[in-house]
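--- STAGE predict ---
source: upstream dedup step, 1 unique chain passed
mode: sequence only
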Amino acid sequence: MAKFLRGGKVVIILQGRYAGKKAVIVKSFDEGTKERPYPHAIVSGIERYPLKVTKSMNKKKVASRSHVKPFIKVVNYAHLMPTRYSFELEEIKSAVTTEAFQDPTQRTAAKKVVRSSLQKRYAAGKNKWFFTKLRF
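--- STAGE serialize ---
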């Protein structure tokens, strides 16, 4: 089988709390691990998307509506739908590791790094499709 679920691939979560949300694969485990003996991936995605911004809004309102709330999660391959898009994730890859899931403080620190990285991308206007809510 072709291994196309690699780091940087944008996917859509199909099951669970984050169903219908877009995420990017940070690290993939095709053979599984000792704790999780099934193929899975560490994903980082957007829990709450930024809201629409118009010209007439002031800077404070634009800043508040441009917030991104991220999530990090370990997801089974069966619950991921790959898209044609990919994403460069140098900053995110260093912060989100398997050790980040052991301790809640490390997890929150990883989320903060992901949040800052995603907000920089959103402000720069990169990957516009990734920051829009799925409509279906």
